[in-house]
Write a structure and sequence with these properties.
The chain has about 180 residues and is α+β, with helices and mostly antiparallel strands. Helices cover about 35% and strands about 20% of the residues. It has one domain. The N and C termini lie far apart (about 55 Å). The strands form three sheets. The chain has a four-stranded antiparallel beta sheet. The longest helix has 12 residues.
Length: about 180
């Protein structure tokens, strides 16, 4: 009897959504452009994002590493960069947009185990990511009060899925009216 291929870990752990945070004031721009656009795609189309999550340093670092070519997604509706953006006043009211897991089928999706523009942060293919992502802490019941588990969770919350150029509206489940 032939051996069954292993189940995809995203399916095995029932990953139902990924997330992208933005200022609610960006919603009309997202709607009018058919979804989320990378910073490079915004520049290519001569569009200015009125309320970017990243500061100038972050945007410059993205550009130097080529991370401006991607729409950045996180695994939970929580990300340290969102907290900083609100604290620094770049984002007034944030929303974590829920992105359907079918986005993983887009050619060229990559993974970063931390904030992707950080110096020395490796970027991995999706196939490599499936071996590196801490699925257990993200998608199963764990004791988040345990300091070791808490450290794993905090690390996993910094990880990013990187989608080339564009995340179409069809993948965004909870886009508010605006």
């Amino acid at each position: 009897m032939p051996e069954m291929p292993p189940l995809d870990p995203f399916q095995q752990h029932r990953a139902t959504a990924f997330y992208h945070f933005t200022d609610t004031r960006n919603i009309p721009l997202i709607r009018s452009n058919g979804g989320l656009l990378s910073m490079a795609e915004l520049r290519k189309r001569n569009i200015t994002c009125p309320y970017p999550g990243g500061n100038e340093w972050s945007q410059d670092a993205d550009g130097m590493k080529g991370m401006d070519q991607y729409v950045h997604l996180c695994f939970r509706p929580n990300h340290p960069m969102e907290y900083l953006a609100r604290g620094e006043g770049r984002i007034a009211q944030s929303v974590f947009l829920e992105i359907h897991p079918d986005v993983l089928a887009i050619d060229g999706v990559m993974f970063s185990p931390g904030v992707s523009n950080k110096s020395g942060m490796p970027i991995h293919s999706l196939a490599e990511a499936k071996k590196l992502i801490d699925f257990e802490v993200l998608y199963t019941r764990t004791n988040w009060q345990d300091p070791a588990i808490q450290a794993r969770l905090q690390s996993a919350e910094k990880a990013e899925l990187l989608v080339p150029a564009h995340v179409a509206l069809k993948y965004i489940r909870n886009l508010p009216n605006g």
